[in-house]
Amino acid sequence: MVGTRRQLKLPEDYRLDLASDPDAPALKRPGGVVVARFSAGGMTEEAIEHEAWEDLLFGSELPRPDRNLVIRPSPT
Q1: Is residue 25 part of a domain?
Q2: pTM of whole model > 0.85?
Q3: Residue 67: how many CB atoms within 10 A of its CB?
Q4: Is 45 strand, coil or helix?
């Protein structure tokens, strides 16, 4: 169905912070470390979940400057 939203399937204690920077919402791991930021066009449920699970499985406590902003082309 168009326009329906589903519950994000994120690892335990991961969260999407929409309030601190509405122009670039942040995915945060437990402890508040930013895993990824999303542009409006790149903020899909699939992209958010992918970044969270990739961080949990392959991430580290070190910042990932090459992964801070997830930009996906807007659908035309």
Answers
A1: yes
A2: no
A3: 15
A4: helix
